């Protein structure tokens, strides 16, 4: 089993709060075509997310020894700041989304893990995609057919962490005979997925979000994400990689300017 801050991660309130904040982070980055604006608009009057952040901020062991590149302070883990910048209509939100991420994969702010691996290492990119998909399959998950997306999309990875925490919540309340074994599996998967995937690139992505939409909704969504990652690293005892992650898009041949597919 991977060593974690066991007392904190087993606390039911802490588990609920962690799962809630992962789901919030995922919702802020979801395509508006999936009705994310309507869901976020309803949250303006819901105190659940601010209460979850308060629980996390007051937990012991939520501060890492030091922040990694692009990570933010625990005090900036505040859903209300994100919701305060939510555009006033779905149309405005959709326009903001498209201007931030583009109609195709954004070169400036790609929401995909493998876009932060040097494009010269195509084999490593393929292996990373396969590994992420392998994590999902190991827990019986597949990507949605209603809203298909690459498995390394930031929303997919955040939702997967929320799913794993949900499994841990079930294990805590489950049969004592199988409880510890299930807890071990859940914690180990969370720790490995955070270390091997989410933690090394999400802070860089978050920083680019702030650069693309300074003072706007995605600026604050990026700040929130960049504050969540070090909290999770501290709770799961994952060290910062110290890597300077940056997008490395594939070069598009001039002959393919304007087309949507590149072989």
Based on the model shown, name its key terms.
globular, disordered C terminus, mainly alpha, 0% strand, TorD-like, 263 residues, 10 helices, 57% helix
What would you say this structure looks like, in words?
The protein has a single domain, classed as TorD-like (Orthogonal Bundle). By secondary structure, it is mainly α. Helix 9 (176-212) runs antiparallel to helix 10. The termini are far apart. Helix content is 57%, strand content 0%. The protein is globular, with a radius of gyration of 18 Å.
- CATH architecture classification: Orthogonal Bundle
Number of domains: 1
The fraction of residues assigned to DSSP E strands is under 5%
Task: Write the H/E string, N to C.
Answer: HHHHHHHHHH
The total count of strands amounts to 0
Q: Biggest sheet, in brief?
A: none
Determine the CATH superfamily: TorD-like
Radius of gyration: 18 Å
On the 0-100 scale, what is the average pLDDT?
A: 88
- Total helices: the number is 10
Class in CATH?
Mainly Alpha
Helix vs. strand class: mainly alpha
In short:
This protein is mostly helical. 57% of the residues lie in helices and 0% in strands. The model is unreliable at 252-263 (pLDDT under 50).
